[in-house]
């Protein structure tokens, strides 16, 4: 990943921290910061993913936006640390999706709360 992208990410983080700690900022500057963040994310993902993988990720974002965001964050983090040697193919993205799905898998349990009826056992009405 290029040094100017890392510097842009650092500047963005610095701006976010300054905004959180009471620096006067208007809504317009916050919108601009969000747009810059989205542009940076898109450029990083464009560098990391090939066209088929990017299409799959955008389809996933339509159906499950939270899972797509988690995968994007995972890919960006891997790119920052240099763990991605080349462009991720669609098959590689599928493997990453499976990893993220296993990590965020929620087990659902159904618990029946049966109400006790105050009937006597002597009277069996069948």
What would you say the CATH architecture of the domain at 37-102 is?
A: Orthogonal Bundle
Shape summary = extended
Derived structural class: mainly alpha
CATH superfamily of the domain at 37-102: PDCD5, DNA-binding domain
* Helix content bin: 55-70%
Pattern of helices and strands: HHHHH
The total count of helices amounts to: 5
Q: What's the alpha carbon Rg, rounded to whole Å?
A: 24 Å
Enter the CATH topology name of the domain at 37-102.
Helicase, Ruva Protein, domain 3
Reported for the largest beta sheet, the result is: none
Task: Report the strand count.
Answer: 0
Beta fraction of the residues?
under 5%
Question: Would you tell me the overall average pLDDT?
Answer: 82
Low-confidence stretches: none
Distance between the termini: 75 Å
CATH class identity of the domain at 37-102: Mainly Alpha
What does it look like?
It comes from Caloenas nicobarica. This is Programmed cell death protein 5. Keywords: Acetylation, Apoptosis, Phosphoprotein. Residues 16-37 are annotated as: Disordered. GO terms for molecular function: DNA binding. With 126 residues, this protein is an all-alpha fold. It has a domain at 37-102: Helicase, Ruva Protein, domain 3, CATH 1.10.8.140. Helices cover 66% and strands 0% of the residues. The protein is built from 5 helices and no strands. α1 (3-20) packs antiparallel against α2 (27-48) and α3 packs parallel to α5 (90-103). The mean pLDDT is 82.
């Amino acid at each position: 990943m290029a040094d100017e992208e890392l510097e842009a990410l650092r500047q963005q983080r610095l701006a976010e921290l300054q905004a959180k700690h009471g620096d006067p900022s208007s809504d317009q500057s916050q919108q601009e910061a969000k747009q810059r963040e989205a542009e940076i994310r898109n450029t990083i993902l464009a560098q990391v993913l090939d066209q088929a993988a990017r299409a799959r990720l955008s389809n996933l974002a339509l159906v499950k936006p939270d899972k797509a965001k988690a995968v994007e964050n995972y890919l960006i983090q891997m790119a920052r640390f240099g763990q991605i040697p080349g462009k991720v193919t669609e098959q590689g993205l599928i493997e990453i999706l499976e990893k993220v799905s296993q990590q965020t898998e929620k087990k659902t349990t159904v618990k029946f709360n049966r109400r006790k009826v105050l009937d006597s056992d002597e009277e069996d009405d069948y």
